[in-house]
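Lecture 7, part 2: worked example. A protein chain together with nicotinamide-adenine-dinucleotide.
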Amino acid sequence: MNVLVIGGAGYIGSHCVRQLIEAGHNPVVLDNLVYGHKGALLPSVKFYCGNLDDPVLVGKILDDEKIDLVMHFAAYINVGESVRDPIKYYRNNVCGVVSLVETMLNHGVKKFVFSSTCATFGIPAKLPLVEDMPQHPINPYGQTKLDVENFLKNCARAYGLNSVAFRYFNASGAAEDGSIGEDHKPETHLIPLAIFAAMGKGPSLKIFGEDYKTPDGTCLRDYVHVDDLSRAHIAAFDKLNGDGMFLHYNLGTGTPNSVLEIIKGVEDVSGLKVPYEIAPRRPGDPDALFADSTKAKTELAWKIKYTNVRDIIATAWKWHKNNPEGFKD
Ligand SMILES: NC(=O)c1ccc[n+]([C@@H]2O[C@H](COP(=O)([O-])OP(=O)(O)OC[C@H]3O[C@@H](n4cnc5c(N)ncnc54)[C@H](O)[C@@H]3O)[C@@H](O)[C@H]2O)c1
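Predicted complex, written out as structure tokens:
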């Protein structure tokens, strides 16, 4: 299939582009490079620099490249920033998608894959999180993702759009060959931050709270490898053949790990000490978040390759050790 990957120069999108090529598809990337890296893309991948809400540019790409399906990774992702500046988040994460879907429909493209998040659930009443549990996001970032999920449902009924939303838990790790990996600026994710602390880059790691209702007092999260996420996306392509549908899947390993376990994992994998300090809790951090991904495993035959978080950390370590400053662009 000819696939337009929007946000394909970002962390998850760039890994997905590699998986698409491996699976025999033909990805084309659109990214405005606000947060992405040209260096994350193989030189053979056709790249357009621009905004997803530019109907002229997007329409031309859809036509010229004979696009069958659009994958959307191009959101802003910083929860704290979304609280401070919700307009930035609603404009890009919601209005941007409305504009994009309108352009797709105007150009006859009706297959859409959307990156959603476990943050749409808010504070879970029960664990593990199953797809149809109530969604009550507690920050603007999570709300923008839920708004788009609901928008896509309406577009299925109104215009026959076929879409799938994947609710990722904690995307982590890097390409097995170490060629690409995570390079967010600023970085907010635990595994890279623990690795940076171990490498002596920046201050010591902050653990936000050690009095949660978990075995070691630190928060439990579900770390899922970025290549496993990408494979689930590709497995869903064949499902998007109806006359208007909205599918949704939770993607996680189902095995939670605590902050202290991640630190220990980084220490074991790297052979370095991770200096850390205990900081106050952050408002809104649930004790634990982990997925029940039975639906994706059953309906998409999704198989998780990285079931052990140490193996995920090892891929991240390989990337960061060889690229301490991230991508060169
Ligand atoms: N990283 C995670 O743990 C995680 C967890 C849950 C959900 N998600 C979702 O996955 C998606 C990808 O996350 P990521 O970590 O790869 O983020 P990222 O910031 O690395 O990648 C996003 C890419 O989109 C591009 N972009 C942003 N706005 C754009 C626009 N208007 N037009 C064109 N390009 C634009 C950026 O330049 C960047 O390359 C996001 O939608 C995010 O909400 C991520």
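The mean pLDDT is 97. The pocket of nicotinamide-adenine-dinucleotide is lined by residues 6-7, 9-13, 31-36, 51-52, 73-75, 77, 92, 96, 115, 117, 168, 170-171, 184 (CB under 6 Å). Keep this in mind for problem set question 3.
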